[in-house]
């Protein structure tokens, strides 16, 4: 079994919340689970570390990334900057085919919202909004920031607390995009991201001690 396969399996489990932020990934247990030696396990953990999923400490222990509330707030601030900018650029370049793709992604995300695939559906919708901007590096940065958020959302058991509200945001963003109204679309998106940050931080462990 390849290190890439092991890394992909562990990555899926991390973003789904099967490992909590800060939880140790023990090489011996992983090797036993996959019935392999520790060498490919170490390689897999190196891959996860390079993707920002885990941290490796000098004693060779691996832990799922665990950020402080201030760091999470910074990530959401960066998301606002990158995502609203990408949306603005995308609206300038959108074709009818792009709008059709966004409509389809919106429909799927609305269905996925009530399932354990809600995060995948949410990203698929946002990705469809940003793709017309043709900014692959920026899109990759956005995806990585969103993945870090998702690790903490899933790890702390935070599900969308106001599903109807964020689906309404999606609907309103789509309406503004159809009308080519960049100002309204960016405004809704900014609030949408900031609301998500508030929901996560409100459920943060020991939040009362970190303020």
Structural commentary:
The chain is mainly alpha-helical and 211 residues long. The protein has 2 domains: 3-64, Winged helix-like DNA-binding domain superfamily/Winged helix DNA-binding domain (Arc Repressor Mutant, subunit A), CATH 1.10.10; 69-210, GntR ligand-binding domain-like (Four Helix Bundle (Hemerythrin (Met), subunit A)). The protein is 71% helix and 4% strand. The chain has helices at residues 3-15, 27-34, 38-50, 69-93, 96-112, 118-130, 136-155, 163-178, 182-202, 207-210; strands at residues 24-25, 54-56, 62-64. A 3-stranded antiparallel beta sheet has the order 1-3-2. A hairpin with a 5-residue loop joins β2 and β3 (62-64). α2 packs across α3 (38-50) and α4 runs antiparallel to α7 (136-155). The longest helix is centred in the middle third of the chain and has 25 residues, at 69-93. The model has no long low-confidence stretch (mean pLDDT 89).
What would the keywords be for this entry?
211 residues; mainly alpha; Arc Repressor Mutant, subunit A; 10 helices
CATH class of the largest domain: Mainly Alpha
Write down the CATH topology of the largest domain.
Answer: Four Helix Bundle (Hemerythrin (Met), subunit A)
Distance between the termini: 45 Å
- Order of helices and strands, N to C? HEHHEEHHHHHHH
Let me know the largest β-sheet: 3 strands, antiparallel
Q: List how many beta strands DSSP finds.
A: 3
The portion of residues assigned to helices is over 70%
Helix/strand-derived category reads mainly alpha
The number of helical runs is 10
Whole-number radius of gyration? 19 Å
**Poorly predicted residue ranges:** none
3D shape: elongated
**Beta-strand share of residues:** under 5%
The CATH architecture category of the largest domain equals: Up-down Bundle
**Looking at this structure, what is the CATH superfamily of the largest domain?**
GntR ligand-binding domain-like
User: What does the average pLDDT come to?
Assistant: 89
What is the strand arrangement across the widest sheet?
1-3-2
């Amino acid at each position: 079994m390849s290190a890439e396969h092991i890394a992909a399996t562990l990555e899926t489990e991390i973003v789904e919340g099967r490992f909590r932020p800060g939880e140790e990934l023990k090489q011996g247990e992983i090797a036993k689970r996959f019935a392999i030696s520790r060498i490919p396990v170490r390689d897999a953990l190196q891959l996860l570390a390079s993707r920002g999923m885990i941290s490796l400490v000098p004693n060779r222990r691996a832990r799922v990334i665990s950020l402080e509330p201030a760091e999470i707030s910074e990530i959401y601030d960066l998301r606002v900057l990158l995502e609203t900018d990408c949306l603005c650029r995308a609206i300038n370049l959108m074709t009818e085919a792009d709008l059709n793709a966004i409509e389809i992604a919106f429909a799927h995300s609305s269905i996925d919202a009530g399932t354990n695939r809600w995060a995948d559906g949410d990203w698929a919708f946002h990705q469809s909004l940003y793709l017309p901007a043709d900014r692959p590096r920026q899109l990759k940065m956005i995806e990585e920031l969103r993945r870090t958020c998702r690790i903490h959302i899933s790890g702390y058991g935070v599900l969308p607390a106001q599903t109807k509200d964020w689906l309404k945001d999606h609907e309103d963003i789509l309406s503004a995009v159809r009308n080519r109204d960049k100002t309204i679309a960016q405004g809704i998106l900014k609030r949408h991201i900031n609301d998500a940050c508030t929901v996560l931080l409100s459920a943060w462990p020991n939040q009362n001690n970190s303020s």
